[in-house]
Amino acid sequence: MRRLGAIGTAASAGLLVAALLGACGAPAAPVSPSPSMPTVPPLTSAPATGGGGDVPPTETSSGPGTPAPTAANWKIFKTPDGKLQFDYPAEWTVKDRSAEAASGAVFLEVLNPHGKSLATLRTDVVTGAECTQRIPYSVLDLVPVPALAQQGATPHFIFELRLYPAEKDPMKANVMAYGISSAPKPSGPDACPIFHFFTWPPSGASFGGVYNPFDTTPGNEPNVDTPEAYRNTSEYQDIRKMVTSLRPAGQ
């Protein structure tokens, strides 16, 4: 890895998040604003901040350079309950993990050919949460997903970061994740911890994953050492296309 700097080095927080993926149980209603993402619930509590309001937020919906092309061949996957479907690259695998979820809930994990976890899709996610902590942030990508609109509200796909400047452990200093969200777009000097969910009967659902530049899965693209660089890779472009393709079955 090169040019990691403050963001890239701290971004190994994704390792902490990803390590929890295999041990996920059924989603439960959060009682505190931990940096929870229904894509990989439950997460550990957020690190304490140290007055990090002096770190300005940034937002970038498109990065410099030309994004890499997406995969040539795609398939359609319909969820076991028959209610949702999405497109995914033909070389990727969709693993059914519903046995680890609540009865009747969907729990799917999308893996690349080398076994790297790229995203999870879950339904019956409980979405209630309180925001008692606000954190410096960056929004790296933002795309509306009109196919999932409910009651006139359109969710969006978002790739975002939360910075914990007082956290000395590089595994926890930054949390970066992408997914579909019905929450308002972050604004102002700081934002609530990441909690990606979208409105979907009977409560909510989630589809997304985490970014970890220190992932050593074979086949990773070289010289990707910042979230901005990752945004232009084929892998991210494929993930973005897959996640934003989620729609009601039959559409």
Helical proportion? 10-25%
> Based on CA inertia axes, which overall geometry fits?
globular
Average residue-wise pLDDT: 77
Tell me the distance between the termini: 42 Å
Class from secondary-structure proportions: alpha+beta
Uncertain regions spanning at least 5 consecutive residues: 1-63
Helix and strand run: HHEEEEEEEEEEEHHE
Provide the gyration radius in Å: 17 Å
How many strands appear in the DSSP assignment? Answer: 12
Approximately how much beta-strand content do the residues carry? 25-35%
Q: How many helical elements? A: 4
The overall number of domains is 1
- Describe the sheet with the most strands: 9 strands, mixed
Structure notes:
The chain has one domain. The protein is 12% helix and 26% strand. It contains 4 helices and 12 strands, in the order H-H-E-E-E-E-E-E-E-E-E-E-E-H-H-E. It is globular.
Provide key terms for this protein.
alpha+beta; nine-stranded mixed β-sheet; three-stranded antiparallel β-sheet; 26% strand; 251 residues; 12 strands
What secondary-structure arrangement, pairings included, does this model have?
Blueprint: H1 5-10, H2 13-19, E1 58-59, E2 74-78, E3 84-89, E4 93-96, E5 107-111, E6 117-123, E7 137-144, E8 156-163, E9 174-181, E10 198-200, E11 203-210, H3 227-231, H4 234-244, E12 247-248
Parallel strand pairs: 1-7
Antiparallel strand pairs: 2-3, 3-12, 4-5, 5-6, 6-11, 7-8, 8-9, 9-11, 10-11
